[in-house]
Amino acid sequence: MNRIVVVDDDSTIRNSLKIMFYGENIEIDEADNLEDGYKKISSGIYQLALLDVHFHQGATCLPVLERLKFEKCETPVIVLSGAASASEAVRAVQLGAYDFLEKPIPEQRLRILMERCLKEVHLKEVLNTVSRTDSRHESSFLGMSKPAEAIRRKIAKYADKNVPVLVTGETGTGKEVVAQSLREMSPRKNKIFVAVNAAAIPDALLESELFGHKRGAFTGAVSDSIGKIAAADGGTLFLDEIGDLSHSSQSKLLRFLETGEIQRIGSNQSTRVDVRIIAATSRDLQKEMKRNLFRSDLYYRLCVADIHIQPLRERPEDIELMLMTFIHRFAARHQTAAPVFSVDIFRKLQRYSWPGNVRELRNFAERVVIQCEGVVDEAALEELLPALGASNISGNVKSFQTEDFQLLPLKQFKNELEQKYILHVLESCGQNITQAAKILRIERAYLYAVMARLGIQRQTESSS
After folding, report:
1. pLDDT tens digits for range 87-128
2. Is the dihedral of CA 130, 133, 136, 140 positive or negative?
3. Domain residues of the chain, as ranges?
4. What angle do CA 87, 93, 96 make, to 5 degrees?
5. 265, 213 in Cβ contact below 8 A?
């Protein structure tokens, strides 16, 4: 939600702006005098201020802008001026105003200017967040989206509980990062962290790898091995791709979870071990249990607490922070300057599906640092990420020719085009309003309002 303050002594202007942005992802506050306006702008809680030039008794906004500039206030200000105050508007820009608009306020121009300004504010916030992130702490779960915030809340909630945690998500979403975060916020943070990828170890060797073996227990056992579980005693054991365990290994792991004891292959003695288990899988264990491929009793032992990580394509708002963090880490590692991305490039990256998730994004970031200097442009992007083609970008709409349309007033043309596109989106997502709102990047309530304005009804509604 973007917070904007409108400072104008004309209530008609303030009310018209509130109506203009009603139902959108914008919260508008207001002030009707310069002193209150100064206090609100300088508070730092707004992403943008709209400030009139002229006020009662001949007062202007120029002294306020001088104070804001002296105090190094970072809130961008768009100045609203009458035609007669153009010179003052120019002076306002010289004092640090982002831009100015003449009254009556042109809605389309205002929207374009606000979008550009808010994007720049957002990018600055991202860069500030990156600069506050210690590059040594690569285990922190990055993201500014609501799903990312929810994951961090769960990590904080479960970290000090000495219970198993099951982390689920597609390959490359950052399951080990979550496991490391759980460990670093737990009482075991200074103890050992042992990671085992069940999918990377042959089934015949997995039991020995986990539980250890005695010398001579089988062919090739030329010395004793304590196993990964015993090696993690007092610390944390991360079992990745737990869904790939065989039934035999599942049974023995279940016994350990129930008793806290392990028995090495070839030994008759049991050893008690204090280990916190964090398991992860890219498989749907609910479906695996129905197919009798995963033991339900083991699932309930492992899933005392659970954390699900959404794929990157479902949280595109996290891409900027993640990418800039990776860019700065790799730039520091390779001792080079961090390349710069334009807003348009970020938009393209947010529309890409990222099938490899965060792992693919991280790889892309390192390639950018190694191969690019200065600004990353369209040509560099196509070379570094060839998969970023039209077939991989969501939201594509069939192109059209201008001759397909009658000669209409611009407002009518825009309404018809908007109507066709919303109908296209609704059809593509099965008339699901929630999903359509996500694709359009607007609130459900605002989508309903636009549909009502354009006379759009879902098929289920019109056919009933």
Report:
1. 787 888 889 898 888 888 889 889 988 988 887 787 677 666
2. negative
3. 2-130, 153-309, 313-392, 402-462
4. 145
5. yes
